[in-house]
Amino acid sequence: MKKNYSYIGISFIILVFGIWAVPEIVRYMLGPDLAFVEREGKKAKVPAFSFTNQNGKTITNDDYKDKVYIVEFFFTTCPSICPIMTENMLKIQNEFLGNPRVGIASFSIDPEHDTPEVLKEYAKNKGITKPQWHLLTGEKEKIFKLSNEGFNLYVGEAAEVEGGFEHSGFFALIDQNGNIRSRIDENGNPIIYYDGLEDKGIQMLKEDIKKLL
């Protein structure tokens, strides 16, 4: 009789372990979960915007509705990190070139120079061909506000810096409903944004875009 109790006890332990372990194994196989970035206890959404793209067309949030898309802030004459960011964003473009449900929004922080004509030439020279990749220009104050307040990604003018502007090299991942999404790190914390200067960040971004599609 005692032996039967032992078997029951062992079976119970195995059952409990299985209930805990199977989801963890599945989680490991699927990779890190994606979090909703939050601000003040609410899901952080991309603020409404309206700017002009490289083809002279007005682009708003509605153009990205039902799309997974990536946001960056750059300028065409940037001598430092922007060329690296663009090369890495091209990797994202090429990975999802034939998928119209994936978009890219590149906001110029030097709109006085980066007119639609300049942006169109930049796109041509860099090999930007994805129809859903919009290089956007407009009022500087609105673009700065979108970056600094909408995404908490600092941009600013800095005469002492080569190129005249300071800005982040991070990319933001946006889901189909306009929510800012993020991978969770090994400590259970959201990384918030993806490093647009490192191969590791680009690989994570590719993987996480696929999770949202």
TrEMBL record:
Disulfide bonds join C78-C82. The keyword Metal-binding applies. One of its GO terms (molecular function) is metal ion binding. Keywords: Copper, Disulfide bond, Membrane, Metal-binding, Transmembrane, Transmembrane helix. It comes from the Bacteria. Gene3D superfamilies: Glutaredoxin. The chain crosses the membrane at residues 6-26. It holds the Pfam family SCO1-SenC. Cu cation binds at C78, C82, H167. Residues 40-207 form the Thioredoxin domain. Belongs to the SCO1/2 family. PANTHER family: ELECTRON TRANSPORT PROTIN SCO1/SENC FAMILY MEMBER (PTHR12151), LINALOOL DEHYDRATASE_ISOMERASE DOMAIN-CONTAINING PROTEIN (PTHR12151:SF25). This is SCO family protein. It comes from Aequorivita lipolytica.
